[in-house]
Amino acid sequence: MKPVKIGILGLGTVGGGTVNVLTRNAEEIARRAGREIQITRASARSLDRPRICDTQGIELTTDSFAIVNDPEIEVVLELIGGDSLAKDLVMQAIENGKHVVTANKALIALHGNEIFSKASEKGVMVLFEAAVAGGIPIIKAIREGLSGNRIEWLAGIINGTGNFILTEMRDKGRDFEDVLAEAQALGYAEADPTFDVEGIDAAHKLTILASIAFGIPLQFDKAYTEGITRITQQDVAYAEELGYRIKHLGIARKTEQGVELRVHPTLIPERRLLANVDGVMNAVLVQGDAVGPTLHYGAGAGAEPTASAVVADVVDVVRALTSDPENRVPHLAFQSDALVDIPVLSANEIDTAYYLRLTAEDKPGVLADISRILAAYKISIEALIQKEPKAGETSLPLILLTQKTLEKEMKAAINEIEALSTVSGQVNLIRLETLK
Length: 436
Prior knowledge:
Elements: E1 4-9, H1 13-24, H2 26-33, E2 37-43, E3 59-61, H3 64-68, E4 75-78, H4 85-95, E5 99-102, H5 105-122, E6 126-127, H6 138-145, E7 151-157, H7 160-172, H8 176-185, H9 194-197, H10 200-214, E8 224-225, H11 233-241, E9 244-254, E10 259-269, E11 281-288, E12 292-299, H12 303-320, E13 351-361, H13 366-376, E14 381-386, E15 395-402, E16 405-406, H14 407-419, E17 423-432
Parallel strand pairs: 1-2, 1-4, 2-3, 4-5, 5-6, 8-10, 10-17
Antiparallel strand pairs: 7-9, 7-11, 9-10, 11-12, 13-15, 13-16, 13-17, 14-15
Helix pairs in contact: 1-12, 2-12, 4-5, 5-10, 7-8, 13-14
C-alpha cells in the first residue's frame, strides 16, 4: 500500500519531538500501522531557527494553511497550541476531509464539541491523546481499555509545574515564590505561569477526562478552578504532621445529583500512591465499578513523551483509514447521539472533608466558640493541632480537619468564624479527599 502522507503544524518542542520519533522508529511504526508514514510538509513561524529535529526531506513553510489545503496530505498534526488560529486550521483541515491529531488541550476543552460535530459530518477522525498527561495513554485507557466499566470517579495530578512546586515546598521547606522562580528557570513554567499555578491548564485536561469518563459534553466553563498560589510552607508542614500531603488535583466524580468537576489543592493521605507522585510527573487514578482503582503514571510533558502520544494517535488513524466512520472509536468514548447532558454541580454542592488553618487569640473559650459554630452547621471535627504562641505573641495557629460536609455549609461556618473578635485574618481552606 502507498505511504500515508502527513503534515505537521508547528515544529516547537512537541513538533520536533514528533519528527524525531516518527523518523527514528519509522520501520517499527510501519509494522504496527500496516503502512509507511511519511512527513512531507511542516510549518513553523521561522524557517531559520535551530530545531531539535532533522527536517531533511520535509518541505518547510511558514504558511500553515498551505498544509491543511494540500490535497496529498491525509493527516494533519496540529502542534502549535492556542485556541484561535489552531481552531481555524483544524476546522479547515476537517472541511477538506483530512484527519487531525492534536496535542492541544485548550482547543479540545473549549471547542471540542464543535470540532467533533464537524468531524462526524465529514467522516474524519480527530484524536487528542497528547492533550492530557503527555505520554500517559490515559485517553485510550478510559475510552477503550475501561469501556466495560461504569467510571465512578477519577482524580489526577495533571499539571507537572504545580506538582514540582508542591514537591519542593514539602521536601525542602521552600516558599512558593522561590520554587516558582526555579520552575521558570528550568523551563517547567512559562514567564507568565498563570495557566499552571492558577489551575487553568489542569481544568482544560480535567474537562476532557470527565467527558470521556461519563459521556457528557465538554463543559470547561463549568469546572471549578483554584490554583496553588495561596498554599504556604506552613500548610505543607501541617499537612505532613497530620499524615497528609497536599497535591493539586483535578477531580471528577459522578453523583446522583450530577457531576463534580473541580481543580484545587487537596490533602490526601500520605500512604496513597497518588500522594507519592513527585516532581514534574503526572498520574491519574481512575475508579471503575468492575476493575476497581487503576493508577496511570508517567511523564506529563516533554518533547518525546508527548510525541509518543501523538504518534500513537497517528498509528490509530492509519489503521482505521479504510474503516467505515460508523465503526471507529467515538471521539468522546460514547456514541455522539448517546452523550448525556448531566448537570455539572457548582462548588457549593461539593461534598468533601476540609483542612482549616486560622489564627486565633490564646485565651479560654476561643476553641469552644469555633466548635459551636461548626456544630451549628453539623460539621464534625476529625483532628486538631493547636500550636503554642511564639514568644511575645498573643495569637496562635489552629489547624482543624473536618469530616465531610457540603461546601456551602462550610463557607457559611467560615464566615461566622472569621467574624469572631478572637480570630484574625482569613481562614485558609483546603479540601481533603481520602480517594477511597
